[in-house]
Design goal:
By secondary structure, the protein is of the alpha+beta class. The chain is built from 7 helices and 9 strands, in the order ααααβββββαββααββ. A 5-stranded mixed sheet has the order 1-4-5-6-7, with helices on one face. It is globular.
C-alpha cells in the first residue's frame, strides 16, 4: 500500500476510518475463507456468518458468486501436494532493519517435481480474471519470506502461483523464485522500510492521485482526494501533508511487513 499511495497507507494503518467493505472485498474474503477449509460443515458456517453481515438484498447474488469461485478453487487443488498449510502467517525477522516481514499466502505446500525433487508451492488466489502487477509483486514477496524462513533446511525450488479464479481459460500463472535475486529483493524491501520510517518521522505522506482513488477504502477521509475531486481531477501538484490526526502509528507496516514490538 505504501508504494501505491503513502497517504492511504497512513490512513489505513492509523485506522483513521473503518469503512464498510466493498462488495468485491466481501466476495474475496468469503472466497478465501471458504476455500481455506475442506470440512463442509466449517465451510458452510463461515459462509453463512459472512453473508449475514451483508444487506439482505445483496446476499443471494454474492452467495452465488462465492460458491462458484470456491468450486473453481476446489477443482484447481493439486492432488499431488502434501504438507499443505492454508492461510497461515509466515514470519521472518530482518535483523538489519528490526522489522518482521510477514506474509500470508493462501496456501504453502510441498510437491514432487518431474525429476523427483521436492518443490515448495506458494499459492495466492485472486477472485478476478486479470493478472495485475501488484499480484506479481505480492507473490514474489510471499516467496521471499517463505524462502528466508526455510533457507537453512530447504535447497529445492520454489514455485509461485497466482491463481485467477475468474479466468476459466488460464487460471494458474506460474513463476519461479530465484535465489540469485534474494539480496537484490531484500535491498528493495529495506529501501521501502527506510522510506516508511522517514515518512513516519516527518509525519508526511505523499498522496498518489488518479482514477484508482475511486476504489480506495479511505477516500472519504482523505483530504488529498477531496481536493482532487474539487479540482475536477486535476491534482498532480498536490503537495504531501499529514492527515488531520497527528497520532503516530503504533505498528508501521509494509504490505505484509510488520515491525516487531516489545
Amino acid at each position: 500500500t505504501f508504494q501505491m499511495c503513502q497517504l492511504a497507507y497512513r490512513l489505513i494503518k492509523a485506522r483513521a476510518a473503518k469503512e464498510a467493505l466493498r462488495d468485491e472485498q466481501v466476495l474475496g474474503n468469503l472466497t478465501h475463507d471458504g476455500s481455506a477449509v475442506t470440512d463442509e460443515g466449517s465451510r458452510e458456517r463461515l459462509l453463512q456468518e459472512g453473508l449475514a453481515e451483508l444487506p439482505a438484498e445483496k446476499r443471494a447474488e454474492v452467495e452465488s458468486k462465492v460458491r462458484k469461485l470456491i468450486q473453481v478453487a476446489d477443482e484447481l487443488e493439486d492432488e499431488q501436494a502434501f504438507d499443505i498449510r492454508r492461510e497461515k502467517l509466515v514470519r521472518w525477522l530482518d535483523e538489519v532493519t528490526g522489522w518482521e516481514l510477514v506474509a500470508k499466502p493462501d496456501e504453502v505446500s510441498m510437491t514432487v517435481g518431474e525429476r523427483g525433487s521436492e518443490i515448495i508451492q506458494v499459492v495466492d488466489k485472486k477472485t478476478g480474471g486479470r493478472l495485475r502487477d501488484s499480484h506479481v509483486d505480492q507473490i514474489f514477496f510471499f516467496g521471499l519470506v517463505v524462502y528466508l524462513t526455510r533457507r537453512e533446511d530447504f535447497f529445492g525450488s520454489i514455485k509461485l502461483i497466482v491463481r485467477l479464479l475468474g479466468d476459466t481459460e488460464n487460471p494458474d500463472r506460474e513463476f519461479w523464485f530465484s535465489r540469485a535475486k534474494v539480496d537484490f529483493n531484500l535491498r528493495n524491501v529495506r529501501d521501502v522500510i527506510r522510506q516508511i520510517e522517514s515518512a513516519l518521522e516527518k509525519n508526511r505522506f505523499k498522496p498518489t492521485l488518479g482514477d484508482h482513488c475511486e476504489r480506495c477504502s479511505v477516500k472519504e477521509h482523505c483530504r488529498a482526494y477531496l481536493r482532487w475531486k474539487e479540482n475536477g481531477g486535476d491534482g498532480d501538484n498536490v503537495a504531501s501533508f499529514p492527515p488531520t490526526s497527528r497520532q503516530r502509528l503504533k505498528v508501521p507496516q509494509l504490505g505484509g511487513a510488520r515491525r516487531r514490538t516489545a
